[in-house]
């Protein structure tokens, strides 16, 4: 049976559009406010949610997400807050996944982690620093819990390795649009489109592009060639600049509405 995430991509492909995926670290700026932010993102048109595991030593995250994670950690956010927010997000009616570096998963117990994601109704886990060579156990554990395994590929990934990694992905393939870390940028890297084209040669799995999208025009551009558009830093910046009160939540919803229009105008 397809996961909710896989069902979403079936739906958006039938509508000839890409899906809009929003990212937020659990517990940012507080656990209570993170629930309100996710609700505002969904009310504005976000199709799926990534719950970030706040991590003190990130590899892929840029300064905006790093600051948000540090704030969440200082407020006590940890694994229970991740699963709590995942359950809330699923309860709002959208496919939801966890994005986490491998260290917290291993520390918690990978089988237990997969079981908790499934129990919360989550569709899968994005593991940016887990290589497929080191994930045989995770592969079986995720399969046992019927959740998606989502790996990250980059423009620097060789064609040979691209085929190898994407063959192990389910739900979607996370295509990093550029070499570097997350963060809103004035333009989307030209490497993103070329990377998606290379992935299409060896895989039929949906491809979502992340890193760098922050406005309607960029969302439309990426939606013209990808199956999903991932936005994180732009949402977090709104909260960092306007807070998570009524004004900040209104701006979150407005940003989601604008990005959603962009995604729908891409084709």
From TrEMBL:
Q: Is Ribosomal protein set as a keyword in this record? A: no
> What PROSITE patterns does the record tag this protein with?
TRP_SYNTHASE_ALPHA
Q: Which organism is it from?
A: Candidatus Nanopelagicus abundans
CDD domains listed in its UniProt record: Tryptophan_synthase_alpha
Identify the Gene3D superfamilies for this entry: Aldolase class I
Q: What does this protein do?
A: The alpha subunit is responsible for the aldol cleavage of indoleglycerol phosphate to indole and glyceraldehyde 3-phosphate.
Protein's UniProt keywords contain RNA-binding: no
Chemical reaction(s) catalysed: (1S,2R)-1-C-(indol-3-yl)glycerol 3-phosphate + L-serine = D-glyceraldehyde 3-phosphate + L-tryptophan + H2O
Please state the gene responsible for encoding this protein.
Answer: trpA
Pfam families to which the protein is assigned, alphabetical: Trp_syntA
Designated name of the protein: Tryptophan synthase alpha chain
């Amino acid at each position: 049976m397809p996961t909710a995430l896989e069902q979403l991509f079936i739906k958006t492909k039938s509508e000839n559009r890409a899906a809009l995926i929003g990212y937020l670290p659990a517990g940012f700026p507080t656990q209570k406010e993170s629930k309100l932010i996710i609700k505002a993102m969904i009310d504005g048109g976000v199709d799926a949610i990534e719950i970030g595991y706040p991590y003190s030593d990130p590899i892929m995250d840029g300064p905006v997400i790093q600051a948000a994670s540090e704030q969440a950690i200082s407020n006590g956010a940890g694994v229970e807050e991740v699963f709590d927010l995942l359950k809330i997000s699923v309860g709002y009616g959208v496919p939801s996944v966890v994005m986490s570096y491998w260290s917290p998963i291993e520390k918690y117990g990978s089988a237990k982690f997969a079981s908790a994601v499934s129990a919360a109704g989550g569709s899968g886990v994005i593991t940016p620093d887990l290589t497929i060579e080191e994930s045989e156990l995770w592969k079986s554990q995720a399969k046992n819990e019927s959740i998606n395994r989502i790996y990250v590929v980059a423009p620097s990934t060789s064609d040979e390795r691209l085929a190898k990694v994407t063959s192990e992905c389910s739900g979607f393939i996370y295509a990093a649009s550029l070499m570097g870390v997350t963060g809103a940028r004035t333009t989307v890297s030209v490497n993103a489109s070329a990377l998606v084209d290379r992935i299409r040669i060896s895989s039929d799995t949906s491809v979502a592009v992340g890193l760098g999208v922050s406005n309607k025009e960029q969302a439309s551009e990426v939606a013209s060639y990808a199956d999903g558009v991932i936005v994180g830093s732009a949402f977090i910046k709104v909260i960092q600049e306007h807070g998570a009160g009524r004004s900040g939540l209104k701006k979150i919803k407005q940003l989601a509405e604008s990005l959603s229009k962009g995604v729908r105008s891409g084709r």
